[in-house]
From TrEMBL:
It is an enzyme of class 1 (oxidoreductase). Residues 10-20 have a biased composition (Low complexity). Residues 54-130 form the Cytochrome b5 heme-binding domain. Its cofactor is FAD. This is Cytochrome b5 reductase 4. Residues 1-27 are annotated as: Disordered. The lineage of its organism: Eukaryota, Metazoa, Chordata, Craniata, Vertebrata. Its EC number is 1.6.2.2. It catalyses: 2 Fe(III)-[cytochrome b5] + NADH = 2 Fe(II)-[cytochrome b5] + NAD(+) + H(+). Residues 166-257 form the CS domain. It comes from Strigops habroptila. It comes from the Eukaryota. PANTHER family: CYTOCHROME B5 REDUCTASE 4, CYTOCHROME B5 REDUCTASE 4 FAMILY MEMBER.
Length: 475
């Protein structure tokens, strides 16, 4: 193995020449040329004895395979069973045996580091070297570094919590002529694709793996350009994630890339400055109480009504923004059409909690611009009285506009609540959602927690409302 001819080496038949490294070659038996080797590797023969399975190899295990009839060698973190290659090695069996059962990377590099051994020994790949366990960090916040003897293949690790040390994932990478494969060992059973978030722009690669409340991040400025499409393979039961990148130029990469700031860190998700996207429906600064100025739209401001959840990832970060901080805002999304309201006679709005937000502009539009509407009714579900958003404005609006009616329904009211109590149900909807005339055109809009919206849609269907008459707002 250690004297494999380089790619530019003359034809396999001229094996008696000296190798570029200056080492003498040995005569090979007939039928043991490079072409013969290639033919053998393509024959489908099980070259590793593992029936195509890849395993993690400990140093102890590697050391056991140190005989001519059972010889494993490690190169750049990957272990090959070179036993079948022995007789094909132009430098002879003894040369190859110098690295038997050990890490032969240095020896290999001294002789011919330019040789494309990954391709030559592809079928002999046994697996990768197992990562050594890291010593437990003494302090809660610490950075442990581990440098192994495998030619820098194993990265340094940042362990940010003593409690999470056993879970700390690790990564490794290898390459073929055309592919770069990054392997992440998450040490998490039941890994699945939803827990892997990949982002790639130009040469910058960001891969986040969610492990319970923690997040493991790979963030690298890649050594060379890669194609846009990448693949992810997940071995769910062992928690192994493979990210496969396609090289743009089939060059040999010396390193995976330059690590970026948060590269190879494992920390609580809430501590990570990660990108989170949330849809919100813009509202108005107030309800249309003053009809002299029906339009409170201005093109310079967007008003959002956002509930800050005490354990929320996004809303907590939002709540801590300072004046001058920036957030990105996407283009608008959604399928609601104003024409649905313009042709209606009865408008029913079923809102739960912050599901009230899409109703704000709808109310404004309906009451100020749609003259054919006879009734507009908001049925507003909340837990407690304190949770009712804009209660005062809504009550004032009901006093001002005869067409508008408001009904508050609380699921967890205090004892002194005299209003309606309950959760969304068929009987409650049949009580409050009624056509003003037998055949009047009706539109029912519904928004709230997903189960609330789904149940509401089902109840309305059961009550005989058609799909066109019901518009659920779903995020
Ligand atoms: P919340 O205070 O937790 O709940 C509001 C009301 O909804 C309460 O009466 C609550 O009753 C009821 N409710 C909650 N879960 C329910 C369920 N599974 N079945 C029946 N009723 C249920 O609401 P919130 O914290 O403001 O959350 C509002 C939700 O609306 C969020 O999930 C938000 O994402 C969503 N939203 C969606 C849009 C959109 O455009 N798609 C816009 C705004 C808001 P209980 O006391 O029984 O829980």
């Amino acid at each position: 193995m250690l004297n494999v001819p380089p790619q530019a080496f003359p034809a396999p038949s001229s094996q008696q020449r000296a190798a570029a490294g200056g080492r003498a070659k040995v005569p090979l038996k007939p039928g043991r040329s490079l072409m013969d080797w290639i033919r053998l590797t393509k024959s489908g023969k099980d070259m590793t004895g593992l029936k195509g399975r890849l395993i993690e190899v400990t140093e102890d295990e590697l050391a056991k395979h140190n005989k001519k009839e059972d010889c494993w060698i490690c190169i750049r973190g990957f272990v090959y069973n070179v036993t079948p290659y022995m007789e094909y090695h132009p430098g002879g069996e003894d040369e190859l045996m110098k690295a038997a059962g050990t890490d032969g990377t240095d020896l290999f590099d001294q002789v011919h580091r330019w040789v494309n051994y990954e391709s030559m020994l592809k079928e002999c790949l046994v697996g990768r070297m197992a990562v050594k366990p890291i010593a437990a960090p003494k302090e809660i916040t610490s950075v442990c570094e581990e440098k192994k003897q495998l030619n820098g293949m194993l990265p340094e690790k940042k362990v940010l919590s003593g409690a999470s040390k056993d879970l700390t994932p690790s990564y490794d990478w290898f390459q073929t002529d055309s592919l770069i494969t990054i392997v992440i060992y998450t040490k998490q059973k039941d890994m699945n694709a939803e827990l892997v978030i990949l982002d790639h722009e130009d040469k910058r690669l960001r891969g986040e793996i969610i492990v319970d409340d923690y997040s493991y991040l790979l963030e690298v400025d890649l050594d060379h350009a890669v194609e846009e499409d990448m693949a992810v393979n997940i071995a769910e039961k062992v928690g192994k994630v493979e990210i496969i990148l396609k090289k743009k130029d089939n060059v040999h990469w010396k390193i995976l890339g330059q690590p970026l700031e948060s590269h190879n860190t494992f920390m609580k998700r809430t501590d990570r400055g990660t990108e989170v996207v949330k849809p919100y429906t813009p509202v108005l600064p107030f309800l249309p109480l003053d009809f002299k100025e029906p339009s409170c739209h201005d093109s310079a401001h967007i008003y959002l009504m956002i509930k800050i959840y005490s354990c929320g990832l996004f809303t907590q970060a939002l709540d801590h923004l300072q004046i001058g901080d920036c957030i990105s805002v996407s283009n608008p999304e959604g399928s609601f059409k104003k024409s649905q309201v313009q042709t209606s006679e009865d408008l029913f709005l079923l809102a739960a909690g912050t599901g009230f937000t899409p109703m704000v502009k709808l109310l404004n539009f309906a009451l100020t611009e749609v003259s054919c509407l006879r009734t507009v009714k908001l049925i507003f579900f909340n837990r407690t009285e304190d949770d009712i958003l804009w209660r005062n404005q809504l009550e004032q609006l009901a006093l001002k506009d005869q067409r508008f009616e408001i009904q508050f329904i609380l699921s967890q009211p205090k004892k002194d609540w005299v209003g309606k109590q309950g959760m969304i149900s068929s009987s409650l909807l049949s009580e409050f959602v009624k056509r003003s005339r037998k055949d009047s055109k009706v539109l029912i809009c519904i928004c709230g927690p997903t189960p609330f919206t789904e149940q509401g849609v089902q109840y309305l269907k059961d009550l005989g409302y058609s799909q066109e008459e019901v518009h659920p707002f779903t995020a």
